[in-house]
Prior knowledge:
The chain has helices spanning 14-23, 79-87, 175-185, 194-209, 222-235, 253-263, 274-281, 287-306, 321-327, 361-370, 375-378, 398-417, 470-483; strands spanning 3-8, 28-32, 43-48, 74-77, 91-108, 123-134, 139-145, 152-155, 160-163, 213-217, 239-245, 268-272, 312-316, 351-353, 426-440, 443-456, 464-465, 487-492.
Amino acid sequence: MEKIIILDFGSQTTQLIGRRLRELNEYCEILPYNKFPENTDDIKGVILSGSPYSVYDPTAFKTDLSRIRGIFPVLGICYGAQFMAYSDGGKVEAAGSREYGRAFLTEIDSSDELLKGISAGSQIWMSHGDSITQMPEKFRKIASTSDVEMAAYRVENEKTWGVQFHPEVFHTSDGMILLENFLDICQCRKEWSPTSFIESKVKELREQLGKDKVVLGISGGVDSSVAAVLLNKAIGKNLTCIFVDNGLLRKDEFENVLKDYEHLGLNVIGVDAKDYFYNALKDVKEPERKRKIIGSAFIDVFNQEAHKVKDVKWLAQGTIYPDVIESLSITGTVIKSHHNVGGLPEKMDLKLCEPLRLLFKDEVRRVGSQLGMMSHLLKRHPFPGPGLAVRILGDITPEKVRILQEADDIFISGLREWNLYDKVWQAGVILLPVQSVGVMGDERTYENAVALRAVTSTDAMTADWAQLPYDFLAKVSNEIINKVKGVNRVVYDISSKPPATIEWE
């Protein structure tokens, strides 16, 4: 399959470049800046991302572009543009002040292939502390702003361009035009779509798996459900799905999810393992340790059930692209452990199959829709792999789980009743390790506080707190306090990501 390679130099918007290309129906892959593929047969072009570093910083990410420039069309974005200019002998210097935010193209060479259809006055988005102040030989300026003379350039006798702004972000008004122009320069066919993905992936899965037996751990979430339906289409009865109740699911979720999977025609085994998980988590408070215990306990339970399936050879997972990228950054810094990333424990003795590994969340939903899945499954909010364990701050007990399940059910049901559920990316309740004084009737209470969390997002890499109506929040707060024994205070989390994360642990 033809592709664009995006080399990631550490920019927080690198994933957004990939999403934009996929929106233009072109397949792309994001790779670390120094991991250009050996096999280049299907590569149509290369994009160099931005970076938090300056090119003259001794710790900056740098790579040899000799296998890329002059061979493939290249587009450098921000740091990528500066890196190419700097590498060829140009000057990159710190700007008098950091150039961040809206700017406008004041001068533009509209005859250039990359800028076709873009006019002077077009809004762009800057985010850099350095600027190219002197172009190398053969680098020709093709656009400027009032503050940045070399806002964009082209290299003569090469299909190589650089822009010191970010075409991938929403605030660059003609960014999609620029990116589509680059795809045209690369002579891309732009045939990536949910339908083409399903056709190629089903064929690939049949070749990969043959007549082997496969087990898949499902959670009721979008990713594992779409993976299950896709695998079922490819190998049918050779797929066995295992749904483990770890005691950390939402209220009545175990029963409801099993009913949904019956409608999908999937072969599903349900396992009640609540007590096993509660015992493993007893008195554990540290978040990362809780994640690891839950992951280990899941493997124990899943492994036991999986090997009841005769001659099983493969484990399938619903891993998606943001899981892979966020789990281990190019700097090697782990943000948090993902439950579905990182391979298999040796004792399982199974091969790994990840059919959705290169899809973004919105693409997973589009694929599921194309497969004919029910809307309520596809629109379901993301739910953390460790479940309510990362929404109970501190140690886990069955009573704390009960309190949180009841409060969470009121909040989520309320979002649906008020037609707010589909306007929110993710929502849930957090049980805080805090007790506060309250009054119920004529009696003093000293009970738990819970926080409501609701965010808007497109891919979970960034998120903003959802501005839910005050009258809705008031109703939910009153209902939780009146109906959930053990709660006498409700607060609303108005933190965005970054600097906060969506989950509290």
